[in-house]
Amino acid sequence: MDFLQPRSWDEALAAKAEHPEAQPIAGGTDVMVELNFDRGRPEAILDLTRVPELAEWGRDNGWLRVGAGVTYTRVIAELAGDLPGLAIASRTVGSPQIRNRGTVGGNLGSASPAGDAHPPLLAAGAEVEAASVGGTRRIPVAEFFAGPKRHVLRPDELIAAFHVPPAPGPQQFAKVGTRNAMVIAVCSFALALDPGRRTVRTGIGSAGPTPLAAGEAERFLEGVLADEGAWESRAPVGDAALRRFGELAGRAAQPIDDVRGTAAYRVHALAVLARRTLAWAWEEYASQDPGGPR
């Protein structure tokens, strides 16, 4: 096995162009598991931990551009104010040691249906920046995943960063696992409210071949909030609307039975998570000063 260790982004792209079969590795939290269980043996490993450009984040035309090498720990410490949904999800990833190593870019690259970062990025309307020696392109997260552990990157491309707008309103994330910490999600749910645009966006994880949006649930809730003038009054969302939102979120899943849970349990759990995250997000919205920033 060849081991490639570029020291700059240009060197990394050149190495990927010359060795398109090379397996990128950053935190190694997914790649090393595959290697240790002998599930695959790549011809080459492309170590991206020495590429400083990947560890940077900043603002670009009102959006955040977050390098693929930014760790979960840094998302929590540095971006929780702008990306509260992703920060909540990051806090549920593994142990502190894993969060110190694991990166959101790596989570995207592994494309696991259970990736904790995927639902909040989907709900927030994020885009993945893919790069090669030939140039860069931005891919909406909703179009990035092609199936379980498959994405639409070309063989010579690497994930440079993800782009996402700062949260315009409350965001929430919750997941169910077989225990409270250091566990792969049985299912997860993310919610993003945009009071300015009067929109509701969602993300479902670990209950389908790829991250999924609960489109019918989004449209239902947008209709209820508009019809009742709730965005203006900030009145509580009724129990019937909460239950229906949860039912529609559960129906949007495409779960299977596996060692972590049954399909029926995942549908039930998603309905509960959707109701809870909506209640938490709306309580936050209702408590905010209407004249405040958000």
Explained architecture:
The chain has helices at residues 9-18, 31-36, 72-79, 84-91, 96-101, 104-110, 118-123, 141-144, 215-227, 230-233, 239-251, 263-287, and strands spanning 2-4, 23-25, 44-47, 57-60, 63-67, 127-132, 135-140, 145-147, 150-151, 158-164, 171-176, 187-194, 199-205. The chain is built from 12 helices and 13 strands. Helix 3 crosses helix 4, helix 9 runs antiparallel to helix 11 (239-251) and helix 11 packs across helix 12 (263-287). The relative contact order is 0.12. The longest helix has 25 residues, at 263-287. The N and C termini lie far apart (51 Å). The strands form 4 sheets. The chain has a 5-stranded antiparallel sheet. The chain has a 3-stranded parallel sheet with strand order 1-3-2, covered by helices on one side. The mean pLDDT is 95. It is α+β, with helices and mostly antiparallel strands and 294 residues long.
List keywords for this structure.
12 helices, five-stranded antiparallel β-sheet, 37% helix, three-stranded parallel β-sheet, alpha+beta
How is the topology of this model organized?
Layout: E1 2-4, H1 9-18, E2 23-25, H2 31-36, E3 44-47, E4 57-60, E5 63-67, H3 72-79, H4 84-91, H5 96-101, H6 104-110, H7 118-123, E6 127-132, E7 135-140, H8 141-144, E8 145-147, E9 150-151, E10 158-164, E11 171-176, E12 187-194, E13 199-205, H9 215-227, H10 230-233, H11 239-251, H12 263-287
Helix pairs in contact: 3-4, 9-11, 11-12
